[in-house]
Every structure is written in structure tokens, then in C-alpha cells.
Amino acid sequence: MAILRNAIALFVLLYCLVSCSCVLGRPATFLEDFKVTWSDAHLRQIEGGRAIQLVLDQNSGCGFASKRQYLFGRVSMKIKLVPGDSAGTVTAFYMNSNTENVRDELDFEFLGNRTGQPYTVQTNIYANGKGDREQRVNLWFDPAADYHLYTILWNHHHIVFYVDDVPIRVYKNSGRAPFPMNQPMGVYSTLWEADDWATRGGLEKIDWSKAPFYAYYRDFDIEGCPVPGPANCASNPGNWWEANNYQALTAMEARRYRWVRLNHMIYDYCTDKSRYPVPPPECLAGI
Ligand SMILES: *[C@@H]1O[C@H](CO)[C@@H](O)[C@H](O)[C@H]1NC(C)=O
């Protein structure tokens, strides 16, 4: 009996080691995967460290970053944005390779607005040092009333930005344009003041009489190949985020994506003739 129990225990242990060696799950607390990178005094842990509050006041904004970098995977968190008069504030959630000249970066930026006016989500993608790929959508709900889930999926086939499981952006690895393939990226977030450009192109300024401004985060989830880590992790086709279902949008996702583009997209660099008389090659790649 004891031998059997030991054998089972050993099997479970080995199974965990094999299946968990390069795939990370949801951390119990913020500090397990992240560290504060900008103004400790403006970032408070709440709910026993399972959630955090970011503060922006006239002295400072704040930010945090993952302790590790990752090569491919899926990163998500629930965010509740600054409510009411948030004009001029920007809350960002992004991945970045921290390699200036050949930077890879995947950005969610939430641009605040005057009370009652819609928040805008701007996404951007840098590949091999080149960005300038902005798209903007207006959210179909009030993102400050409640937590919503924001996700970046990055595998060998495409990069997808999701809002509550609705794809709002797809960047295919089509071979037509650079695609982040070799550089690991960290996970970052900041809340800061950007009233020189954020709201109506900078026309709407921050109303500091409404400060401090608060944003909330919870349910941090990073599943990917940590770097440094097992060298063969990133190229392993057995990683769940590389599976069939994740290589292209499902039929349901494609429907939702078209719905967003038809009803909620307010800017797309691909169709901005003043910036790009000829659409950049990735714009013709489809989904
Ligand atoms: C803010 O609201 C105005 C008016 O509805 C809208 O034109 C704009 O796109 C909104 N978002 C930003 C970031 O300016």
C-alpha cells in the first residue's frame, strides 16, 4: 500500500514538473509575478495582495512590471478604469522587449474622457523597432463601472487583443511584415497623465480638482515561456496557446471581431490615407 501511495505521489510530482515547467498559472498575489517600477507610494495592494489600486495625483502616476520576461503565451488581467471625469489620464497594459532600436511591443492604452463620454482603447504593435500601427475602438460598456478582462495572446501564428473574450485586433504572422518572434517581452502597466494628446487629441485637459484618480487591477494571469527558462519551451508546439484553436480566430470570434470593426472602430492606421497612401503590407493579411 505504502509503495503504491509513494508511486502515485511520485507520478503526480513528475507530472507537475513536466507539465508546469514552462507554463505558469494564475499567481495568488500581485507580488508573486510583479514588482512596482514607478512610485511605490501610488500603488496599493488591496484584498490581501490579490488586487491593486493605482493612484494618479498631481505629484505622480505609477507603474508595475512583471519580474520575468516571456516568449509567446497569453497574458490577461481584469482592470477597472478611472471613473467619472478621466479626461487626460491614460491607463496602459502592454508587453515590451526593452530593446530600444529593435523594440517589440504590444500595447493596450485606455484613454480617459470627460464624464459621460466614451473611453477609447488604443492598441499599437511594434515589431523590430517599428510602431505607428495605431487602432482605436470605443468600448461598448462603461469600463470604469466594473472589472473587465483584457488579454494579449501571442503565438507563432498571430497576436490577438481581446476585451472580455471579444477580439478587437488581429496581427497575423503573414510573412508580409515583421512579426515578434525572437525577443522575450515583459508585462507592464502604468497610470499616468497624458493630457497633451490623449483626449480629443489633447484638447481636453486633466481636471486636477477631481484628483486623485484610481484604477484597479485583479486576476493577473501570465501563461507563457519565461526567459530565462527552459530553452526549448518557446518552440514547443505542445504549448496550449499554440494549439489549433489558437492559430486563427474561431468562427464565433471572427463574427465578434467583424462586429467590433463595424460598430466600434473609430480609427485604423490601415485606412488612414494621409499617413499611409499605400496601406502597409500587414493590413492586407486578413485574419
Ligand atoms: C471622448 O469623447 C469624444 C466626444 O464623444 C469623442 O469624440 C472621443 O473619441 C472620445 N475619446 C477620446 C480619447 O478623445
TrEMBL record:
GO molecular function: hydrolase activity, hydrolyzing O-glycosyl compounds; xyloglucan:xyloglucosyl transferase activity
Xref: Pfam families: Glyco_hydro_16, XET_C
Keyword line: Apoplast, Cell wall, Cell wall biogenesis/degradation, Disulfide bond, Glycoprotein, Glycosidase, Hydrolase, Secreted, Signal, Transferase
GO cellular component: apoplast
Enzyme Commission number: 2.4.1.207
Record has Cytoplasm as a keyword: no
Top-level enzyme category: transferase
Signal peptide stretch: 1-25
Compartment(s) where it occurs, according to its Swiss-Prot or TrEMBL record: Secreted, Cell wall; Secreted, Extracellular space, Apoplast
Active site: E105 (nucleophile), E109 (proton donor)
Domain GH16 intervals: 24-217
Residues bearing glycans: N113
Protein family (similarity comment): Belongs to the glycosyl hydrolase 16 family.
Annotated function: Catalyzes xyloglucan endohydrolysis (XEH) and/or endotransglycosylation (XET). Cleaves and religates xyloglucan polymers, an essential constituent of the primary cell wall, and thereby participates in cell wall construction of growing tissues.
Protein name (Swiss-Prot/TrEMBL): Xyloglucan endotransglucosylase/hydrolase
